[in-house]
Design a protein that fits this description.
It holds the Pfam family HTH_18. With 267 residues, the chain is α+β, with helices and mostly antiparallel strands. The protein contains twelve helices and nine strands.
Amino acid sequence: MINDQIKISKIVQSRHIKPQGNYYSIIWIRGAVKGILINKVLYENIANTMFFLNPSFEWEIIKENEAQSSGYIMYLSDPIMNQPVLSRLEINVVRILHSDTVHRAQLAPGIEIRVQAVLEMLDELLTTNLNHKEDAIMGLVNTFFVYCDGQCNIKSPISKHSSKATLVYKFKRLLSENVTELQKVNDYSDRLNVSSTYLNESIREVLGVSAKSLIIEQLVMRSRHALKFTDKSSKEIAYELGFSSPEYFTAFCKKHIGYSPLEYRKL
């Protein structure tokens, strides 16, 4: 039964300890915790952080109080992690969750509500007897990891005291808040008081991609969302996203999405 292989739990208790069983743990700390103890190492200042832990890790979440939920935990069994739908992800999730490294990543600003929605839908589905329930659940698990890949960049571990990781997080936060106005790497390096060379070096070391590719990724994601879920004209979308002209927006979509705005809306 899939109900025995996936569990969703809110972080409410003052001390939350890893349960019995051979489960992988994906822990999203939203806030209001003193820290998480992983194999006797205490991680603090972890608001809005996602942890990806295999069954070999011993961990305990230490909350400040029980007045509110501080996040969610998703437990996944081996059979779930070995499902073909997950093996087709761009990232090798199974490799990450089998690693002996503590993988942690910051959620990009604005993505929290979507991640929470996926987890809440999973939690609801697990208690139903709907037809095709298992397919729907695996689709949501896949969606969760796709979001994590695109918004958390879990490809590489981020060390606890890495100054470059801190810089990368500041860049991603700045990018999320300003991508419609700032679309050059130099714009961000100037704001962060570092050279564009050092910013690119840090991003490549931590995430394995360039700063420019992350800027493009944000614009692609916002372009797709606006084209699919709003009634705005492509001209309106182009100017709202900071493109200099509708023609440039069309060229951008053809290059990075594979379709013109009109073609993409017809899919």
